[in-house]
Amino acid sequence: MENPLYNPREVKKELTVLYKHFPEVKRLLRSFGCDALTAEDIFQESLIIYLRKKSEPGFDFQLAPIYFIKQTCKLLWYNAARKGQKQGTMSLDFDLEETPDAWMEKELQYKQLESALAKIGKQCKELLHLFYGLGWNMVDIAKKLDLRNDKVAKAQKYRCIQKAKDLVQEAQLNVESNPF
Fold first, then answer.
1. Distances 64 to 39, 49, 75, 123, 168 between C-alpha atoms, Å
2. Which class for 72: exposed (0-12), middle (13-18), buried (19 or more C-beta within 10 A)?
3. Which positions of the chain have pLDDT values less than 50?
4. Which of 15, 29, 103, 132 is most buried, judged by most C-beta within 10 A?
């Protein structure tokens, strides 16, 4: 009778020893950005690869089994991460319920401001962009926008800001009256 290459008792003993190294492998994978559940799956898959390689006649391990497992896990993770990038998938590791209310309110204010700026008109947008965005002085802004002088430019800027504020307040009232 031929000696079997696969001895279940020996495999069980070896797997027991290798599973003791799982926390170490999990930390390694986590340091590469892998989540805990995926790390467990990758570890399991690397054990299967290890057992298949071990059962191949003529395959000689140059490393201790745990180092083979670690290297296999790293390769499997890199392949999985590369596939995820190609597909453009990304997992969200946070829950919307846990996001701070202040952050959500700030985002809503930014959206309202963007909406107001889209409605205020081309000249107002350009004036505010030149003053706040690029830091131009009122004399240069007046020349650029063909206004009589810097005082007219200041008055125009004030009217643009007031119009934007009114539009933001109007948007806030609409949000409060129609939450969904």
1. 21, 15, 17, 72, 66
2. buried
3. 1-3
4. 29
Which residues, other chains included, contact 80 with Cβ-Cβ below 8 Å and sequence gap of 6+?
A: 38, 42
- Give the dihedral sign, CA 21/27/28/30: positive
Q: Where are the beta strands (DSSP E) in 4-159?
A: none
CA quadruple 156, 161, 166, 167: dihedral positive or negative?
positive
Give the whole-number percent of the chain exceeding pLDDT 70.
82
Helices 101-119 and 150-177, axial angle in degrees (round to 10):
130
Contact yes or no for 51/61 (Cβ under 8 A):
no
Supply the pTM of this predicted model.
0.45
DSSP label of 64: -
Neighbours of 6 (CB within 10 A): 9
Q: Angle, to 10 degrees, between the axis of helix 36-55 and the axis of helix 8-19?
A: 150
Which residue's entry shows tokens 């059962």?
55
Show the tokens assigned to 93.
């590791």
110 vs 120: CA distance, rounded Å = 15
The pLDDT tens digits for 128-140 are 888 888 889 999 9
